[in-house]
Each structure stands twice: as C-alpha cells, then as structure tokens.
Amino acid sequence: MASSTPYTLKWGILATGGIAKTFAKDLLTDPAIRDVSDVRHEIVAVASSTSVDSAANFIKAIDGPSSAKTYGSYAELVADPNVDIVYVATPHSHHFQNAMLCLEAGKNVLCEKALTVTAAQARKLVATAKAKNLFLMEAVWTRFFPLSIKIRELITSGAIGQVYRTSADLSFGQSKPDGSLGFDDSNRMVNLDLAGGALLDLGIYALTWVFQTLYHTQPEEEKEAPKVVSAINKYRTGADEQTSIICQFPKHGLMGIATTGMRVATDPDGKGSAGPAIRIQGADGEIQVMPQAYRPPQYRIVKKDSAGTVEVVDCPIPTDPKRGGWGHGMFWEADECARCLRDGKLESATIPWSESIVIMETMDQVLKQGDVQYPEVITTDVFDPKSPLNTGGK
Ligand SMILES: NC(=O)C1=CN([C@@H]2O[C@H](COP(=O)(O)OP(=O)(O)OC[C@H]3O[C@@H](n4cnc5c(N)ncnc54)[C@H](OP(=O)(O)O)[C@@H]3O)[C@@H](O)[C@H]2O)C=CC1
Ligand SMILES: O=C1OC[C@@H](O)[C@H](O)[C@H]1O
C-alpha cells in the first residue's frame, strides 16, 4: 500500500549562479501545483566557492529557508551529513571535478548539462557512481516535462506512423553589427576555459530532441549509436559559434539533424512566429514542437490525411501562487531524483547513464571534427580534489 507521507529529498546546492537560483526556486514550490504528492524537497545547504556571504545572499535571493547551512567552499558542502543529494550548478568546465568531489564524499548527484566536457569524463563519473552505489543523473530537465513524456509515447504508439527523421534547433541571435557576439570574451558562453561554445550549452538540447525521439525510443536490445557528420564555424575565442550535426542511425533507417548557434535565432521574435523548433517526422504525419527546445510551451500533431487534421496541444508550466507565481519546470527532474532515491535506483530510466555517455561521445566527435580544443585542466579525467575547479583557486 502506498504511504501517505511524501518522501523528502534533502538538497545541497553547489554554486550560486543563475541556474542554481532558478532550480532552487523550483524546489521551493508546492508539489501540489503539479499534482505531485509522493515526494517533496528541502534545501538544507548551499555552497559558494566565492564566499560564505555569497551562499547567504543566495538563500535571501531565493527566499529560502533560514535553517539552510551556508558554506564558503564546495568541500564543506559535500561533507555535510544532512545532505542527501548535491545539485552541481557550475559551468560545464567544472562538472567532472565537482561531481567527482561529491561522489567521492558519498553524495548522490544531479549535475547540470552538459554532463561533462568529454565522454571519458562521463564514463569515469558513471563508473564511480556505480562503484560507490550512488545516484547520478544529468540534469536534462526537458526530458521530464509532461510534453516530452507524451511525445515519446506518441512516437512509440505509432501515432504518426514509423518515425524516420527529427530535425531540432536551439540557436540564439547574438550577432552584433561589428561581427562580434553579444557576450564578453570571458563569458561562459564563448570562453574556452569554461568549456564555452554553442554545442555544449545549447546544442545539447537539439541533440536531446534527436536522442529522445530517435534513440531512446529504440528497443533496448536494438540500441544503435549514431554515425556523426558535423561542421563547426568558430568564434574569435576558438569556441564553436555555429554547429550543425547529422546523426545517422543506418540500421534503423533514421536521420537526426541537430543545429545550434549564436548568430541567428530559432525564435527571432520570441513568439514562435518563425515556426517549430523541432519536427519529428513519421510516415503518417509529424509532431512539431514550438520553441524554445529547452522549455517548449506547445506541440502540434499534423496528420497526413486529406482533412488536414492539426491538433494543437498547449502545455503550460504550473506556477505556485504562494511563491509569487514562480514555476520554471525544473521541479519535474527534481521529482525524478526523489523517486529514484526513494526506490533505490542509481540511474533514471528517462536519461540512463548509457544515454548520457552516447550523447557525450557524439559531442566528442563533433568537437573533434570541428577542431575545438579545450584546456587540459577541464578535459582531464583524473580527479583532483585540490583542482582550482573544486577550490575556486583558493
Ligand atoms: N538547465 C538549464 O536550463 C540551464 C542550465 N545551465 C547550466 O548550468 C551551468 C551553470 O550555468 P549558469 O548558472 O548560467 O552560470 P553562472 O555563471 O550564472 O553561474 C555559475 C556559478 O558557478 C560557480 N563558479 C565556480 N567557478 C566558476 C568560474 N571559474 N567561473 C564562473 N562561475 C564559477 C559560481 O558560483 P559560486 O561563486 O557560488 O561558486 C557561479 O555563480 C552550466 O553548465 C549551464 O550549462 C545554465 C542555464 C540554464
Ligand atoms: O541550459 C540552458 O538553457 C537556457 C539558455 O539560456 C542557457 O544558456 C543554457 O545554458
């Protein structure tokens, strides 16, 4: 018989930047707004590599619990016995070292996307989680949206016939008249030291759609990794600014096209007027997903029939009136973490370890084909608790 007491997951937040605030505010919403009653979340600790004051300011900024511990180092956070799981919210350059710091300290981990900078790092994280019997998940939040779940069901139930092709784009229009992009060269979007570039930051969402529609839906015993052909235009910093990827699944006869960039936008007017960000095309019709690819508000089913049937489905993100109308959509991945830990699972079936690794292997190939080179300190797969990526240089 199901228990009426929700399972409570106690979170530690590692880093205090933009997405850490967004995610933490989602944790603080009432699960009832999304019809969830079996799990709930508490923020019990926050760490900043900058200072303990930054951690305290973070709690104030999110209107968080005054009971939460605040730390001025990541090492202190991972040593806190009250923390069940750590949310790693540093730039991608830091994910491998920070997630290893957590796992080595015996903590379960939800790590922001892209999981790592290289596939070898992802394999090392997975091997460590497995060896230590700990939960590890890449925070590809879009996969946990009811919209994504429904679309995967539509594909596997044959609603648009045999699916043959997915094209997906996530691009921002940041081009300036002088030829530069609208980011300082030190910004994590274009800075090689922070694993900058369109692919690891934005392209991962275009790939998420290719993989969740063409790979995740393949039967387990027939899983086929893609053959990858790609092209990259580089920015002046050496990071990729426009990247196009073809993922071919020849045994299944499938083709995925993922595009990303920072020159022209998927959604130039921010209202969806330019059309879908994603097209999933089957023999009997197609599913179109409206932008942005990371937080889609709507999908449409266009049937290949003489009546020209188009079904439009809006998927609003629930908001919490008691939290100032807040709700971003990251709570669904948090709920998944809680359920996995409650049920003793080390990985999520929605983004299994093997799939995170295949996606990182795909991105490895793209970066190699485009000759993007990141510094050794962020590509090494040797864990170093004293790495500046773990200590903030202190
Ligand atoms: N799922 C989503 O929708 C989104 C995911 N992301 C992902 O989250 C991660 C962080 O992005 P975002 O929050 O936008 O980044 P921010 O720059 O806003 O924050 C990153 C935080 O990481 C910590 N940090 C440690 N070392 C460094 C360093 N050398 N340079 C910069 N920051 C450092 C800092 O926190 P402190 O000083 O407290 O240690 C900083 O505040 C990225 O991997 C990104 O891909 C980003 C946006 C949206
Ligand atoms: O994950 C993300 O989604 C939203 C984007 O604005 C951000 O750059 C990226 O990291």
Automatic annotation (TrEMBL):
Residues 10-137 form the Gfo/Idh/MocA-like oxidoreductase N-terminal domain. The keyword Metal-binding does not apply. InterPro entries: Gfo/Idh/MocA-like_OxRdtase_N (IPR000683), Gfo/Idh/MocA_domain (IPR050984), GFO_IDH_MocA-like_dom (IPR055170), NAD(P)-bd_dom_sf (IPR036291). SUPFAM superfamilies: Glyceraldehyde-3-phosphate dehydrogenase-like, C-terminal domain, NAD(P)-binding Rossmann-fold domains. Pfam families: GFO_IDH_MocA (PF01408), GFO_IDH_MocA_C3 (PF22725). Keywords: Oxidoreductase. GO terms for molecular function: D-xylose 1-dehydrogenase (NADP+) activity; nucleotide binding. Its EC number is 1.1.1.179. Residues 150-287 form the GFO/IDH/MocA-like oxidoreductase domain. It catalyses: D-xylose + NADP(+) = D-xylono-1,5-lactone + NADPH + H(+). Belongs to the Gfo/Idh/MocA family. This is D-xylose 1-dehydrogenase (NADP(+), D-xylono-1,5-lactone-forming).
